[in-house]
Request: fold
Amino acid sequence: MNTLSLVRSDSPVSVGVEAKLASATSEVMIARSLTGRPVLFHQADHDNLRRGVRYRVLVPDHARTAHGISARLGALALAGADIRTMPKVPLDALIVDRTLTVLPAGRRDSVAAFELASVVTTTVELFERMWQTAVPFTAAVASAGDVTDRERELLTLLFAGCTDEAAAARLNISVRTVRRTVSQLMDRLARAAGSRQAPRRPTAAGCSTTPADVSRPDGCVAVPP
Reply:
């Protein structure tokens, strides 16, 4: 289908983009420049990974040590995503099954959703060129056998948008334990990566600074489309 839609976050078409993402069957490619206050991931991303959809994610090198972001990337990697970094990612793009490309539009809180074959193909080719030169975020993260079920559960909560406080309440542990656990996990992921640019320990202030959405009683962030 050759279509172009300008999508606002509160528009009916936005629901269609979300549905496309949630119904992905083979692969999702995500490029994030991490400028401004970006939305990194959606709940649908976690659901897709559990269904076996392949994920490839490109972010700038500074994401390895960015406060809050490195823990979420670690959780995504443990869920099975392939993450790479490069000095600068020049675009923000979401590509679903190589049939839909979502790019930022000129208006605030708007994106352009393309099913035009030429646009999708061009975006995929650009992504692939960047992917070839990017450095793995972690090496063999998925095979890190020393990650316990409780640690995976904690990272899953953080990936889903929970604050440190909300994750601590869900797991019936202290906020200090949450932060210490994530710090230790990042150290282990760094050793697994065996790279000069492997993720370093988050700062002592904690692994997540995203404020809780007051409309959510569980203290987790409701991620906008």
In short: DSSP finds seven helices and eight strands in the chain. Residues 4-146 form a domain with the Endonuclease; Chain A fold (CATH 3.30.870.10). Residues 175-193 form the longest helix (19 residues). The radius of gyration is 17 Å.
